[in-house]
């Protein structure tokens, strides 16, 4: 009987974790979506991915599609010293539409 309760408790913990991770999931953007959000061109985003180590982009080890977490991208844009006012307005307008 003790093992069964322990198993049920473990299942409850797993279910709670899965439900929590679904609600806390990050929105991952494509290059095109990141360009639309920031106001940069797709080419500029690709340049940041390849040349700026602080740019928040993730690629699979074997290559493939680049993923950019939206919240990390927004933070990166705000932290940049050369972030222009127009790009800031685009980010804020997109946030306000949600």
Report on this model:
The chain is mostly helical and 98 residues long. The chain is 64% helix and 4% strand. The chain has helices at 2-23, 31-38, 42-51, 70-79, 85-97, and strands at residues 28-29, 68-69. Strands 1-2 form a two-stranded antiparallel ribbon. Helix 2 (31-38) crosses helix 3 (42-51). It is elongated and about 55 Å long. The N and C termini lie far apart (49 Å).
Q: How is this fold's topology laid out?
A:
Layout: H1 2-23, E1 28-29, H2 31-38, H3 42-51, E2 68-69, H4 70-79, H5 85-97
Antiparallel strand pairs: 1-2
Helix pairs in contact: 2-3
Largest sheet: 2 strands, antiparallel
Query: Which parts are unreliable, with pLDDT below 50 for 5 consecutive residues or more?
Result: none
Helix percentage range:
55-70%
Strand order of the largest sheet: 1-2
Distance between the termini: 49 Å
Shape: elongated
Q: Per DSSP, what share of the residues sits in E-state strands of 2 or more residues?
A: under 5%
Structural class: mainly alpha
Number of DSSP-assigned strands:
2
N to C succession of SSEs: HEHHEHH
Mean pLDDT: 77
The number of helical runs is 5
Radius of gyration: 19 Å
């Amino acid at each position: 009987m003790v093992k069964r309760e322990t198993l049920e408790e473990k299942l409850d913990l797993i279910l709670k974790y899965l439900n929590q991770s679904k609600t806390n999931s990050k929105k991952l953007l494509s290059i095109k979506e990141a360009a639309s959000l920031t106001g940069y061109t797709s080419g500029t985003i690709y340049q940041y991915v390849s040349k700026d180590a602080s740019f928040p982009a993730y690629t699979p080890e074997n290559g493939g599609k680049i993923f950019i977490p939206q919240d990390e991208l927004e933070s990166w844009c705000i932290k940049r010293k050369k972030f222009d006012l127009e790009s800031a307005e685009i980010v804020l307008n997109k946030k306000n539409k949600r």
